[in-house]
Every structure is written in structure tokens, then in C-alpha cells.
Amino acid sequence: MEQITWDDFEKVELRVGTILEAFEFPEARRPAYKLKVDFGEFGIKMSSAQITKHYTLEELPGKQIVGVINFPKKQIGKFMSEFLVTGFADENGDIVLTAVQSKVPNGSKLV
């Protein structure tokens, strides 16, 4: 594992946001949802996430998640992803979202 400095870590904008809406993403190569997330002062951003094994579209709105908001936008088919949704793979490789335990203000930085 490569070590990084504290300065390297501080460059990564890991911010909390609240999912406003979740949509089907039938064009994705692997099953995924599109997410519309409110990052407070950083605005509302869209991304996609391969989280269909652990989450339904109905349960996602209102959930606070952690995203990297300072990566360049990424084209995924016809869709433009504006941030990286973070999560952990379970024992089957299915993604579990990185989330906060208690509600915090949208846009809060992981410290």
C-alpha cells in the first residue's frame, strides 16, 4: 500500500450530501441507479452507482451519502457523472454506500 501525506488527503473533497432522487439507469453496462444529490453550498450533482443489490429506488431519497466532489466529470454512456459515489464491497462484491450515522449539514467535509 502506498502511503500519502496529510496534504494529499486534504486535496480530496469527501463531502456529505442528501439523495434527492434516484432513477433507473437502463443504459448502464452493469445494473446501476442515477442519483441526484444535494451537496449544500456545492450544489446539486448527479452521479451513478452500482448499488442495486442493497438498495431500492424508493429507499434512497433522504439518505445521506459521502461523495468525492472534486474529480473531473466523467462520461458514462450518454450520462455525465459529476461526483464519485463512495462505498465498500461486501463479501459478494456488491456495493454498500458510505453513509453518515447521524444527520449532518449537506456539504460537510470528512475530516
Strand order of the largest sheet: 3-2-1-4-7
Shape: globular
Nearest-integer average pLDDT:
96
Strand content is 35-45%
- What's the story with the biggest beta sheet? 5 strands, antiparallel
How many strand elements?
A: 9
Helical amount: under 10%
What are the segments in which pLDDT stays under 50 over at least 5 consecutive residues? Answer: none
Order of helices and strands: HEEEEEEEEE
Helix count equals: 1
Terminal CA distance = 21 Å
User: Which structural class do you get from the secondary structure elements?
Assistant: mainly beta
From the alpha carbons, calculate the radius of gyration and give it in angstroms. 14 Å
Characterize the structure shown.
The protein has 111 residues and is mostly beta strands. Helices cover 5% and strands 38% of the residues. The chain contains one helix and nine strands. It has one helix at 6-11, and strands at 14-24, 33-38, 44-49, 64-68, 74-76, 79-81, 84-85, 87-89, 95-97. The strands form three sheets. Strands 3-2-1-4-7 form a five-stranded antiparallel sheet, with no helix packed on it. Strands 5-6 form a two-stranded antiparallel sheet. A hairpin with an 8-residue loop joins strand 1 and strand 2.
